[in-house]
Each structure stands twice: as C-alpha cells, then as structure tokens.
Amino acid sequence: MAIIGMKEARKLQETYGTPLMVVSRREIEDRFQMLSDYLPQVQPYYAVKANPNPDIIKIIKNCNPYFDICSNAEIDLIKGFGVEGKDLIHTHPIKKEQDIRYALEQGVNWFVFDNEYELNKFVNYKDQVKLLLRVSFPNPDCVVNLSFKFGVDPEHAIDLALKARELGLSVKGLCFHVGSQSLNPYKYVDAIAECRRIFNLLALKGIILEVLDIGGGFPAEYVESIIPVRNFFMPISDALNRFFPNIRIISEPGRFVVANAVNLILTVIGKSNRANVWWYYVDDGLYGSFSGKVFDHCDYPLLSERQGVREQCIVAGPTCDSFDIIYQNSSLPRLDIGDILLVPAMGAYTGCSATNFNGLAPAKTIIID
C-alpha cells in the first residue's frame, strides 16, 4: 500500500526534513485510468475539497480537466490553472447569492440544490443557471453519511422539480452522494435505479432530464482491506448501462483519486515511559495531517523501519495539547528518537484540514514519479 519504501523514506527525510507528504504522480494517473477502464460511461469531476494542493491539482488537470468545486476560493484555484468555468460544477447545495453571482461571472453555470429556499436564490439568474437536484440516499455502510446534511427525500423530489419549473428555472438532472468511503457498491445500484424512476416520473410531467451525477465516495484502502476496485465498479457500471444507456453521466471522485497516492513521513521527536506504557511523540498530529482522524473519522496505518517484537504504545502529536494523541493503542516495535514512521494513504482530507496551531506549520509536499 505504501508508494515508497523505508530506505527511500529515510533519504527523503534527510533531504527535505519532516513531516513530509510524498505524492506519487503515477498513482494519481493510474487512478484516473481505473476510472476510465471500469466506469467508461462516466466523466469524473475531481472533488477539489479532498486535496486542493496546487502541485496535486496540476497533475490532476493533466489527467482530467474537470473539477467539482464548492466555494469561490476553489473556483479561483482551479481557474488559476487555465481551466474554464464551463468545466466546473458547483456542488454545494447551500450557497450565498453572491457566491452564485461570482461563480456565474467566472463562467460556472452548473449548480446543485436540494430545497425550495435555495431555488429562490437562482431566480434572478434563471437564464444562466443549470440545476441538478440532489436526492438523499442514507447509507450506513459508509464512513461519513453525506445524506444526513443534504439531499431531498426521493418521494419529494418530483414536487421540488415542479417548484423549480414554476419559478422558471431549468432542472437538468439529478445528483446523489451515497456517502464518503462507501464500501458497498450496491448502494449506488439502488440509488441509480431510484433515479431512473424519478427521471421517468418527471418525463411524464414534461421535465426531461439530461444528466445524472452519481457523486463520489469510491473507497480507498486504509487499515482494512476493501473490495477489489474492479469488483466494486462492475455492478455500478452494469446498473448505469441498464438504467441510463443514453444519458450524460458524471461523478465526483476525490478520495479515490488521491488517498493512496500520498505517503506521510514522520520523525519520532521524543519518547517517554509512562505507567509502563511507551509514549512516542512525532512531528505531525491531529492539528496537522492527522486532522482526518477527527473530521474524516479515518484510521491510517503506521509503518516502522524497525523490526522486532511489537508492544502496546501511544503515539502523540507535537503540540502541547493533550487532545493531540494520534493513537491510544498502537502496536509498534520499540522506537528511538530520530526514527521515522511511514504512513500510507494520507492523500485525502488530511493536509487540507491541517492548521498552524502552536505555530507548527503543516507538512511540506513533494512530488515523485
């Protein structure tokens, strides 16, 4: 799962220092190739929120020049790479009216909504905007249930689309997100089938939809193994072919593209034996790259360059806050100050939510082939 070995990690530590994020260009390229191979009918729009690092965005743009954005700052970031507004989709269901106006000024005209109060914000721009109605599909088989905060119940989707038409707005399609780090592909299948039903009912009422957005949530491999990529995408692709053979289909992959393309190198900066338990203090933590443990509910594997008997230990971050403990019950060989740890799968929802708390800068990032 690691993209580099311990010897290379040690050399990079000596050259660049730590904490250090190491990004594999090839792994990102391979991920887009997998999407092309296994979901050939789907146009991916990279979810910028997963990792907006400019060096990573540059790689992604060369693979796939379409992006899912959720804010003015993300629009500015992506347009700075020469991407046109028409190749962006604004997927945040709740926006300020001035955000809609700014996006339109930048050439973005695809937006998402999920309630009638949001529709009112678009009325002044009804000749410019193209709307996707977000439908809710709660999913217990995912790490983050993204239908808890957003999305209209399927039984109310018809009325909401009709309300949009009454206001003179153009609903062009449906979108959904079955949840982040979704482990069950059949949740997508169920959602696709239900969207077909909504498409058909709206057609009977004179609203012909043109686009289906199946969201993101495709899983990455962390501590636990996941279903093989091919097996995960196969039922989704089959369902799309069965229910939507002639419709434009898009997706919003983020984690799947970048999570496994980045490794983090840490250095042990201190150690202590407290109540017969070894504590190891490293130079990144919950206020930095491991913010994903808090916000993304994610666990990351820790790899040591040392061999030997593993023992229970606690791994803590570098700040003076006692909250900053990465693992309460880790299992590692006996470590010394100056040792390095390698952490795979650190590309998604990690550095993007890191802070400068205690005056500690987030990890540096380098690109390797």
What does this structure look like?
The model has no long low-confidence stretch (mean pLDDT 95). 43% of the residues are buried. The strands form three sheets. Strands 1, 11, 12, 13, 14, 15, 16 and 17 form an eight-stranded mixed sheet that branches. The two termini are 16 Å apart. The protein has two domains: 6-20 and 260-368, Lyase, Ornithine Decarboxylase, Chain A, domain 1 (Beta Barrel); 25-258, TIM Barrel (Alpha-Beta Barrel), CATH 3.20.20. It is elongated, with a radius of gyration of 22 Å. It is built from eleven helices and 17 strands. The chain has helices spanning 6-16, 25-38, 54-63, 72-79, 97-105, 116-119, 154-166, 186-204, 229-243, 255-258, 291-295; strands spanning 20-24, 42-44, 46-47, 67-69, 88-90, 110-113, 130-135, 171-176, 211-213, 248-251, 262-274, 277-282, 303-304, 310-316, 325-333, 340-343, 364-368. The protein has 369 residues and is an alpha/beta fold. The longest helix has 19 residues, at 186-204. β8, α8 and β9 form a beta-alpha-beta unit.
Unreliable stretches: none
Strand content: 15-25%
CATH topology of the largest domain: TIM Barrel
- List the domain count as a whole number: 2
Amino- and carboxy-terminal Cα gap: 16 Å
CATH superfamily of the largest domain: Alanine racemase
- The pLDDT mean sits at 95
Total helical elements: 11
Order of helices and strands: HEHEEHEHEHEHEHEHEHEHEEHEEEEE
CATH architecture level-2 label of the largest domain: Alpha-Beta Barrel
CATH class of the largest domain: Alpha Beta
Considering DSSP H and I runs of 4 or more, what fraction of the residues is helical? 25-40%
